[in-house]
Amino acid sequence: MPTNSKIENICPFCKKKIDRPYWAHVQSEHPDEYKKKQTWVKLFKDYISLGMDQEISLQVIAELYNTSPSEVKSFLKQQGVQV
Ligand SMILES: [Zn+2]
Fold first, then answer.
1. Average pLDDT over the chain, rounded to an integer
2. How far is the CA of 49 from the centre of ligand 1 (A)?
3. Cβ distance 29 to 13 under 8 Å?
4. CA of 79 to the centre of ligand 1 (A)
5. Would the pTM of this model clear 0.90, i.e. be above it?
């Protein structure tokens, strides 16, 4: 995939186009979702099914939740997701 491709900033919960940072939107608009790390599993699977690169998916989720890709990865592993 081209390295300069931009990921559309679409909120996974309300499907609205949003400005960065994602997490600020999620935190204010979807506070319950924001608190649930469990959501990462669904997001990751959604992104992969859309054909998004695994590393990029981790990065996007990390950005969405204002955390690091490695934390997302280790959580997904704990949940039995192959990463
Ligand atoms: Zn939203």
1. 85
2. 20
3. yes
4. 24
5. no
